[in-house]
């Protein structure tokens, strides 16, 4: 087996490898969009981005058996430069996948470090336990989960005392306060996402100017106690969850003193009812694995589609190079 720098010559081979891997993912989770089984869809992604990515391919007897590429990003997962590998930017189809992935990462990570990228993140399709284990043994830990579900009614009872409705302009002051609560919560233990910027009234109103964005509210006794962002046609989800039949859930938060009343469940049900009426087929969400209350809720109703794992290389390695 030989390792070469990723180039235009390998685009079609890479697209073929990923689509084969994706077909296995859909065997385990058939609610995933079928369009990513089309090699040309993945080929277009690779063609659009490969010049910006840094990576390698594995070749044996003239056949491409694996590839791994990543996008360099400034201030990624901290104040240092990093690399991100989305789920479509890597694949290995070979009898000894651990060995091939190991060799790919050995060569690619050296290139990434030379490029100043110390923080490495990779998204893995959830069906691939073998790949998860490979990255675990390379020092990676779970950070983000992309999950999906159908639009069928949620099981169990609903809290009928909670009012669920969409945002109105006069709600802005209360909503801004909830966004601050949300960001403060996400910066707390054990999540520790730094509170860098908090959405203000202008940010929220500007986001809502897009007709594909909605903000749903949960109210108790006339007070807004919960928010749920919803986006049609666009999302921050994994690529394999991004298509015209998927509605995506963004920031979701319930005031700490009002949790445990089924408010988020009621919001989710209302969102899915509207999405179903609009002709959508699935609902997606992305959440931090360290967000315990969020994780417990989403995994109750959604199935993981992708896991994103992260490794932070000690910056003192520069002293040895």
UniProtKB/TrEMBL annotation:
One protein family per Pfam: Acetyltransf_1
Residues in N-acetyltransferase domain copies: 162-321
UniProt superkingdom: Bacteria
Database matches in InterPro entries: Acyl_CoA_acyltransferase, GNAT_dom
GO molecular function terms listed in the Swiss-Prot or TrEMBL record: acyltransferase activity, transferring groups other than amino-acyl groups
Keywords: Transferase
Keyword Transferase found: yes
Keyword Transferase appears in the UniProt entry: yes
Name of the featured protein: GNAT family N-acetyltransferase
């Amino acid at each position: 087996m030989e390792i070469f720098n990723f180039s235009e010559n390998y685009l079609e081979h890479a697209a073929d490898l990923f689509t084969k891997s994706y077909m296995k993912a859909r065997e385990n989770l058939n609610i995933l969009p079928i369009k990513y089984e089309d090699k040309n869809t993945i080929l277009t992604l690779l063609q659009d981005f490969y010049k910006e990515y840094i990576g390698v391919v594995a070749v044996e007897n003239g056949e491409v058996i694996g590839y791994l590429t990543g996008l360099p990003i400034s201030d990624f997962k901290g104040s240092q430069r990093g690399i991100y590998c989305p789920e479509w930017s890597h694949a290995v189809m070979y009898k000894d996948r651990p060995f091939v992935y190991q060799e790919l990462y050995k060569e690619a990570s050296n290139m990434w470090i030379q490029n100043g990228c110390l923080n490495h993140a990779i998204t893995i399709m959830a069906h691939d336990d073998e790949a998860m284990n490979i990255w675990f043994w390379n020092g990676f830990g779970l950070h983000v989960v992309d999950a999906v579900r159908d639009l069928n009614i949620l099981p169990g009872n609903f809290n009928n005392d909670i009012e669920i409705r969409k945002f109105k302009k006069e709600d802005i002051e209360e909503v801004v306060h909830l966004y601050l609560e949300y960001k403060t919560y996400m910066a707390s233990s054990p999540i520790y996402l730094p509170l860098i910027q908090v959405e203000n009234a202008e940010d929220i109103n500007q986001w809502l100017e897009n007709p594909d964005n909605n903000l749903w509210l949960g109210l108790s006794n006339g007070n807004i106690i919960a928010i749920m962002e919803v986006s049609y046609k666009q999302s921050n989800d994994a690529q394999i969850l991004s298509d015209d039949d998927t509605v995506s859930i963004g920031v979701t938060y319930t005031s700490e003193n009002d949790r445990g009343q089924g408010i988020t469940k009621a919001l989710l049900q209302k969102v899915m009812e509207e999405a179903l009426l609009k002709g959508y087929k699935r609902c997606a969400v992305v959440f931090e694995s360290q967000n315990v209350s969020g994780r417990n809720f989403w995994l109750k109703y959604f199935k993981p589609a992708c896991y994103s794992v992260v490794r932070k290389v000690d910056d003192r390695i520069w002293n040895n190079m």
